[in-house]
Amino acid sequence: MIFAAILAGGVGNRMGEVDKPKQFLTLGDKPILIQTVEKFYLNHRIDEVIVLCHKYWINHTKDLIDEYIPNADNVTVVEGGELRNDTIMNAVSYIEGKYDLSEDDIIITHDSVRPFVTHRIIMENIKKTEEVGACDTVIPATDTIVVSEDKDKISNIPNRDFMYQGQTPQTFKILKLKECFNNLSDEEKSTLSDAAKIFVLNGEEVAIVRGEVFNIKITYPYDLKVANTIIDDAKLNISDAETGEYKVNLYDFDDK
Amino acid sequence: MIFAAILAGGVGNRMGEVDKPKQFLTLGDKPILIQTVEKFYLNHRIDEVIVLCHKYWINHTKDLIDEYIPNADNVTVVEGGELRNDTIMNAVSYIEGKYDLSEDDIIITHDSVRPFVTHRIIMENIKKTEEVGACDTVIPATDTIVVSEDKDKISNIPNRDFMYQGQTPQTFKILKLKECFNNLSDEEKSTLSDAAKIFVLNGEEVAIVRGEVFNIKITYPYDLKVANTIIDDAKLNISDAETGEYKVNLYDFDDK
């Protein structure tokens, strides 16, 4: 079986004066969260979509799903944890409570505020995880990456050819993820901000899947402006979500 | 003395079907290159601005400067080199041919397609280079950085707290830069894509200066759309360029 865990735990403190978390803000004609959930809900390989959010926002999230995706009997709202990886483990616990898992079952974890994930990215995540056991979605680093360990001087400028920027989805065989997570020390569990690193710290292979420049994470109001530009370009409709790619035009434009 | 070298060597092949390099495209009411040159031309600490471009575009660049910055007697157009660092060394050669340099003289190198550099960033570049001898403008990495040496599997996910994305300006004491560059092997010279790394490879200190999220490099048409959004927000005028910051509003927005 294949599950999608949509991580909507944010309470939106980076969004300034806004009175609700960013995943509930409107993008195009519906909330960002709904745009994201639809990508997984509409994918025929995915058995159940689990939306993880802060306990204060569970009822609001359920209401939105009822309004925008009525009769979605395979979308469930579950309480998230304090940290990103706690939230993912809450999804694992929910799944284990409902199904008998085998070692081939897969969880696709994805940021609720990355609504531009494509069908191609999701399908490649599933394929790579079936083959390797874990995968991460990345794009080649667009900037030179600079390392500074003291926030004052440069420690190193690594070869840019090897550097990537992480996006999501991050996809894992569920039982392997649980085993690797349980192998971590309490300190590792409390400081780890990335799920793929759970595998890396265990010496397990993680494949990389090519993301998209436009698969952005909406964190700041500025990002929402960019996102609305992407939406305007994409002329989104259901068939896009079904067949794969957005019609975002990154390579041609009018020079007025 | 303090010089600005504006790196405009691009011939624009990443811009698709456009018939001219991206630095000549219009942003707001004038070419991107002019927006960038103005930031340095208007800075009272800078003695001369050297614009480095491909030989095919020298006349066009001169014409633009005459049109938009008439009587700019301290803006000079010089032919660039094949690689980024060759271009910078061409600027150094030009400066050496015209002035007697002392070890305190400074070159500020900057991408012609980063028009949103601020007065604050330029002044901090000058100050840090006076103190340390070299500096680089960076922002904390917004994404998790992933290292893959084989383009297939993850090699490492370094601690994000130490990771930064490089921007420009990159600023150096000129004679030290020349000395460090001449110490490199031919292979290092031919593969190096970053000027700050000339210092790093020589074991010399490079300070970091805080950039800005909106100090973007306009590489793809998508970036130009974002840039126009920034321009719309910023309500640019000369006093902004004189006093420092753009009025780009990253933290508040209307949720309609």
General shape of chain A: globular
Q: What kind of sheet is the major sheet of chain A?
A: 7 strands, mixed
Largest interface: A-B, 62 and 60 residues
Helix coverage percent of chain A: 25-40%
Rg calc of chain A: 18 Å
* Percentage of residues in DSSP E strands of chain A: 15-25%
Q: State the order of secondary-structure elements of chain A, H for helix, E for strand.
A: EEEHEHEHEHEEEHHHEHH
Which structural class do you get from the secondary structure elements of chain A? alpha/beta
- Low-pLDDT sequence parts of chain A: 236-256
- The number of strands of chain A is 10
Tell me the number of helical segments of chain A per DSSP (H or I, 4 or more residues long).
9
- N- and C-termini, Cα separation of chain A: 51 Å
What assembly state would you assign to the polypeptide chains in this entry?
Answer: homodimer
> What order do the strands of the largest sheet of chain A run in, or round the barrel if closed?
5-4-1-6-9-7-10
The chain-level mean pLDDT of chain A equals 88
